[in-house]
Write a structure and sequence with these properties.
Layout: H1 2-18, H2 24-99, H3 119-133, H4 137-150, H5 157-170, H6 174-187, H7 194-207, H8 211-224, H9 229-240
Helix pairs in contact: 1-2, 2-9, 3-4, 4-5, 5-6, 5-7, 6-7, 7-8, 8-9
Length: 243
């Protein structure tokens, strides 16, 4: 547009010179037209610069929006995965309960019963678990850590370690969750939390990007603990990984 306007001016100027219009009035008129044209060119340039700036701002805003959307999708997928993990274990346990033949449970011998937890133990443990159930994972982790320090010999110790691991896991602190589950495997091999801890340890490895180690851990569960809910969950994890 600017080039056309300048070309028109030059053409007009040439035409005036060709017909011999050399009077001062006509020259003044041409100069005024040139001045007006320069003003229009300046305005057009300003409009173009404003338009370019606006387009750049819109592109930047669009990129920020896309980045936020990607983060939201990633968080949503992680939440869905946690829900799927929980649902798998619960469904598998429900299937075991339905399939199991109904028979009276054997009464455990008194010598095999774990020592009863003291009132203080129970209160401290239940308070921390209540925080966990409310979704206050950081607060629950603090309470469970204090509980384990104050009551290291409590019969609730393995449960406290498991909830401590879950509290870190649910905060995506997988490197902090893993040692809690490994302590259960090492210190409480006969605990009811042993196999669940073994599964969560494998999932921690996977979350940290340690895929070969995670695959090995999942296969150990499927090979050595067949028929358990954790083995079925581990197999589903391996299926998701293409194994």
């Amino acid at each position: 547009m600017i080039n056309r306007a300048m070309l028109s001016t030059l053409t007009l100027t040439g035409a005036l010179l060709c017909v011999g219009c050399s009077s001062e009035d006509r020259l003044k008129k041409v100069e005024d037209q040139v001045t007006d044209l320069k003003v229009e060119i300046f305005k057009l340039r300003s409009q173009m610069e404003d338009g370019n700036k606006k387009a750049a701002d819109e592109r930047q805003a669009s990129e920020v929006s896309r980045a936020q959307d990607r983060r939201f999708q990633a968080d949503l997928q992680e939440t869905m995965r946690q829900l799927q993990d929980s649902t798998r274990v619960l469904n598998n346990r429900l299937g075991d309960a339905v399939a199991a033949p109904r028979r009276p449970a054997a009464r455990p011998q008194a010598a095999e019963e774990p020592p009863a937890a003291s009132s203080d133990d129970e209160k401290a443990f239940n308070s921390a678990v209540l925080d966990y159930n409310r979704g206050n994972y950081a607060l629950a982790a603090d309470g469970l850590s204090l509980f384990l320090k104050a009551h290291p010999q409590s019969p609730r110790a393995s449960d406290a370690l498991f909830y401590l691991g879950l509290s870190s896991y649910n905060q995506k602190a997988y490197d902090k969750a893993q040692p809690s589950f490994e302590r259960i495997l090492k210190e409480y091999p006969t605990s009811n939390q042993f196999l669940p801890a073994k599964l969560k340890r494998a999932q921690c490895l996977l979350k940290q990007g340690l895929k070969p180690a995670a695959i090995k851990a999942f296969k150990e569960i499927t090979d050595n603990f067949r028929g358990t809910p954790e083995a079925r969950t581990a197999k589903q994890e391996l299926d998701d990984l293409g194994f």
